[in-house]
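pls ignore typos typing on phone
adenosine-5'-triphosphate + seq
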Amino acid sequence: LKQILGTGIDTQSAEPGMKARAAATFAARVQLEGVTKVYDGAGALNGVDLDVKSGEIVCLLGPSGCGKTTLLRVVSGIERPSSGRVLINEREVAGPNRFVPPESRGVGLMFQDFALFPHLTVLNNVAFGLKALPQADSLKAARAILDRVGLLDMASSYPSVLSGGQQQRVALARAILPRPAVMLMDEPFSGLDVQLREAMQEETLALLRETRATSLIVTHNPEEAMRMGDRIVVLRRGRVAQAGKAEELYHAPADLFVARLFSEINEFPARVRGGVVETPAGVFPAPGMEDGTQAVVCLRERGLNLTVNGNGGPGLPGRVLGVKFLGDSTRMDVAVAGFERPLKVRVDQQDALARGTEVKVGTAPGSVLVFAAETGT
Ligand code: ATP
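k done
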């Protein structure tokens, strides 16, 4: 870490004889081509292709062990890929015949535990990233960024007296001060409580936009990915399961795994006949699936509409069995004719119904997804 931080300076583009300077961010494109990483015979990355546009903020999302951190480490240069290539601004930084060490890649790193140096003051922690500059300049720049993140009055404190949120700010300031072309952040908000996390996400986003750093942010939280990312890359078992804007992943998930990440859903089995699945809730298209395929039909909890006093109207008859207050929304368990188990229906708090209410249940367009049971696709 010290090595990388200490040289987050644009030494490479400096003319010979010129002093290193803080790099004006050259927005950098980051490409991965067929990247694999094998540990002890097991693949942590199994052929990742990724093209991150300069200045783009991409969130890497996926369950524990899917390879998110490994991908970040490969881009930073802390790890060498087993095969494949990594390019930063079209320049190969890792490949079969080339390996550029982390300190020469122009990347900034921020870790989950913030990794502040305990024996250095806040000011010196932040200035560390600019140690190639004359000390007066680096301290001046460090003070300016501390002011920007609201911590100037803590400049002479040591990390041990800081709260989690303050430590996060210091780590962010330290990582961003050298204006790295590429910012790599590993679960940067996971140690923070919910309210603080949202404030920190906003601040971080603002700083990343200001510096125009191309950013890869690792998270296992879909909401965080949607909030932070211009694009989200979902990883599963060391592969890209799907990449796209949040809306794309929500509306057109490539598989059941992605659907579950972005939407609360009811799942039930059905069999494909003539390109459709017939369910108690209606007939839905199952494009590209052969007759007899066992399918999983998903009804979004948010996509089920309940009508009270809908006697004679459209929809399936149902009855509210349970009501659960969940803060922003309320979830109801509704017994619906034709379904073995109650369906979960999510509504805004003011639309919640009392237990025992008789309802008619309809499905909103776009709220039904059909996947092949065996492959999940
Ligand atoms: P988490 O969210 O839990 O941090 P992750 O998605 O970041 O998970 P990685 O840390 O990239 O996952 O790990 C991917 C796989 O590679 C895991 O199976 C992990 O055990 C393995 N792995 C990671 N680093 C090493 C290592 N240094 N040596 C051996 N195996 C490793």
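The chain is about 25% helix and 35% strand. The two ends are 40 Å apart (CA to CA). more later
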